[in-house]
Amino acid sequence: MTKQNPIIAALDVPSAEQALKLAEQIAPAVGAFKIGKELFVAAGPDIIRRVRATGASVFLDLKFHDIPNTVAKAVASAVRLDVQMLTVHSSGGSEMMRAAEKSAQDTARALDRPGPLVLGVTVLTSMDGSALAEIGCETKVGDQVERLASLAVKSGLRGLVCSPLEIADLRKILPGHIQLVTPGIRTGAEKADDQKRTLTPLEAIQAGATWLVIGRPIYAAENPRAAAEKILASLF
Ligand code: C5P
To answer: Which CATH class is domain 7-234?
Structure first.
């Protein structure tokens, strides 16, 4: 295949054994694996080394948000673990994001590795207008997403995480090189769950997503490998 496989399979399982079993099963059909807080806190940094040892790329989704110096050091530690993508909260501000990006590129350069993609998270999709107002942000959710997305790009980040329904609007205001990573992907074949605002894999790519984060439609399928292959086939 000449085109990059845009599927990032979320390893949303509670143990290293389950994660590695799933990773080995679906690796040939996906482009990368996402390791989030549940697995990382349970299994520790070693799970990153073990998933990397399969040859797969790793997206470490720990959504860092702290003072710039602390975030820079956490990013450096992540880069030393050889992750290819990681997340920071854009609401941490421009100084924090610039520190994260600089640390990512400087650490990778020192190790003679390609720099990872540092992704900005804008407004969590669990938050609505009243949740934003509660923390003193009297702005519409969509406006706040655009504001934080623009700030992330001005701060030097080259990618953002966004909901499927934000892709089209963000594509209108962002430079073309910005990579958009989107969860909330559903094929229509799976049982109803807590994702409310979804697009199919093809719809998300057509709207301008670069990467698709897919959890349950793959790992909860009867045959995860077949589910991933079917999603991949739907894209090309
Ligand atoms: O199982 P599902 O496909 O819904 O998993 C989506 C993945 O993306 C999960 O790891 C979830 O934590 C993450 N995510 C999300 N919605 C967001 C941000 C992240 O579903 N707004």
So the answer is: alpha beta
User: How many CB atoms within 10 Å of residue 76?
Assistant: 16
**pLDDT, mean of residues 146-159:** 98
d(CA 109, CA 114): 7
Q: Which of 12, 37, 211, 212 to mutate to test the pocket of ligand 1 (most atoms within 8 A of CB)?
A: 12
Q: What percent of the chain has pLDDT over 90?
A: 92
Q: Which residues contact 95 (CB under 8 A, 6 or more apart)?
A: 68
User: Is residue 63 among the annotated active site residues?
Assistant: yes
Cut 0.90: pTM above it: yes
Atom of ligand 1 nearest to the CA of 216: 1
